[in-house]
Amino acid sequence: MKTNGEGEGQFASMEWRKRRANGKECIGSIKCNGPMTNNNLVKQQQQQLLPNPSLIRRARFIRRRTTNVYCETLKQLKEQDAALISQILLIGLKPRSEASEFECSCSGSSSSSVIPSVEFACPSLSSNFLLFPPTLFYPDFMKGTIQRREEREAFQVILTNEKGDRKFAFCFKFPRPQIHRGKRGAMHSADSGIDTLRSIAPFSVLVFVSHYPQEALFHGLAANFVEMLQNDKSKMTQMSLDLLRLRFTSGGGTKYANHWSRSNVSTVVEKVGVENVALIFLCLLSERRVIVTGANVRDVSTTVQTFVRLLAPLEWPHTLIPIVPDSQTELCFNPTPYICGILRYNLSKINELICPERFPKDELFNNDIALIDVDRGVIVPSISRCSDRRIGLKAILQHSSSMGFPHSAVCEIVSALKSCLPVRDPEKADHKIEKKVMIWYAKLFGHYRKFGQNILSARNRKLFAHAHPCAETRHFLKWFVENGILQSFIFSQFRDDGITNTNPFINSCALLHRFHKILKKYAPPVDGNGNRRRTKSVIWRVFTR
């Protein structure tokens, strides 16, 4: 009785002998004319089929240095306080001469005459003021003090502490009339009651800090808060205390939900371009450094969040900065993976980073920068056409191949995103994009559930990659299973038996329930022992193309 491996090896040997008899030696998709030595054949076969060893080495290195810490913090996440809002801030601009030492240090080496300052805090920051640098919430303060009277602008800032605990700061920028010094213009701290006599700039930023990324809800609360602030400032303290009493309740209790909700993803995909979005999506999956730039805070921040949401149900476990403050552009020089937004006029401060010829060579992190302009498309790597900002499919295939992605998978994700456009109903289009991405995931690594909690062991990682029916995808999984994004996702699935939990709130608004239903239909056929089912694999390859 011959094993499956012996049968496949014998079949491959017979095929090779037939091709050699015809004078055409071929291995995989490598065609050669003329005689070849066995060493050359083996060498070309490895180059064509085996993943680049540096990809596996790079994935392991990044995971051990970064996401291992992230996974350890997930173990400590218990039932969180049900408070919808944990902190309310009002940020404005003040003269540098009146700023505190901490506020001046946050502005860095900027020469701006005015810098961001916390005008109001509820509850009082006291010893926690270091956790809320005001420049994070007023990132474009160096534009100048005289700004045009623009529309209300909303954006999000991500707050991550040294333990990896992630919070969301919803920022609502609005114009307000000049308030002069005097009793009527005094602002009161929520707890201390001390008058703050200062001249307030025409623009201020209202900040709600929360564990939950509920944008639509916060937008409504912010609009009401600003309306109250413009009509009667004396009620600001009481309204802040009322907002802090709000609780996020559910029939099954409350739990930390780190997944993003859908919000106009399709609109951003249509604006930025399918090819551009697909390339950045693949860069994030391969844990590259991604920089998003544009003309204003709202566009940049929204685009960054769209790319992160596009990964769902996977999460981005590395550095996430929707908008880098004008005074802290050095954050872009972080050598580990990140995605961050930066305003276009600050690009000159990081030119040595985005110019490959000036960037120092590094075995693991060389050429891993991707820079995309919201309006102009991908700038780095320079693969877009000169005539327009679109990227050809051939250019995407070439670049994604260097990152280790199979051509068939790249073509499939590009086609899937294109099928969701044009956008007629944003909500339905968002739902469709989310489903397409989850189907794409299911076809690539949907069989992970067959391996149980021991999938992350060294032996099972190899078996997991080998169990996929497609040879091209098997070689892709050899390095992708070492990836921190996939491992942190799998770890969270089996944490506290969460994979069997039927509470839709605990499982992040039923997103994982939808994914598990998709897995039943599209996951590669694998038996209970983690072995490939050969007959069903043939049928699966036919019907999932």
TrEMBL record:
Please list every transmembrane segment annotated in the UniProt record, as residue ranges: none
InterPro entries, A to Z: cDENN_dom, DENN_C, DENN_domain_containing_2, Tripartite_DENN
Q: Which Gene3D superfamilies match?
A: 3.30.450.200, 3.40.50.11500
Q: Where is the UDENN domain?
A: 101-517
- Report the SMART domains cross-referenced here: DENN
What the entry lists under PANTHER family is as follows: DENN DOMAIN-CONTAINING PROTEIN 2, UDENN DOMAIN-CONTAINING PROTEIN
Name of protein = UDENN domain-containing protein
Q: Which organism is it from?
A: Heterodera schachtii
